[in-house]
């Protein structure tokens, strides 16, 4: 505590949190076009106002000065995959040691005729 007051970190947002960015009114935006875009928070920069966000529809990242963040929804939460144990039992995996691989490759090299 440098000045006797705890720092305020309410403006810090979660990485990957769902956010809404306002699309400003312009001649290109028609009456029934959406006025917000859904984005994901990527981070901050020292010399730029706002947050760096990722636009999934455009596959671009930009700094946006004004946005609303839904902290309770994070990117990984939206795309969670649920795996049931029944599905895993049908898979068959074999384990092969690195030592076995190296000895087999050395044996193959020895069996080749030399010039």
From TrEMBL:
| Positions with biased composition (Basic and acidic residues) | 89-98
The UniProt record lists the Retroviral polymerase SH3-like domain at 18-69
Q: Where in this protein does the record put region Disordered?
A: 89-115
Positions with biased composition (Acidic residues):
99-115
Name the domain of life this protein comes from: Eukaryota
Give a single Pfam family match: SH3_retrovirus
Quote the InterPro entries the UniProt record gives.
Answer: SH3_retrovirus (IPR057670)
Q: What is this protein called?
A: Retroviral polymerase SH3-like domain-containing protein
């Amino acid at each position: 505590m440098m000045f006797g007051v705890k720092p305020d970190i309410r403006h810090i947002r979660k990485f990957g949190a769902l956010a809404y960015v306002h699309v400003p009114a312009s001649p290109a935006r028609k009456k029934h076009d959406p006025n917000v875009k859904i984005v994901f928070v990527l981070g901050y920069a020292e010399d730029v106002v706002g947050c760096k966000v990722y636009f999934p529809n455009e596959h671009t990242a930009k700094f946006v000065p004004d946005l609303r963040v839904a902290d309770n929804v994070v990117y990984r939460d939206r795309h969670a995959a649920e795996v049931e144990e029944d599905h895993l039992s049908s898979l068959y995996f074999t384990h092969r040691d690195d030592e076995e691989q190296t000895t087999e490759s050395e044996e193959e090299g020895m069996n080749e005729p030399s010039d």
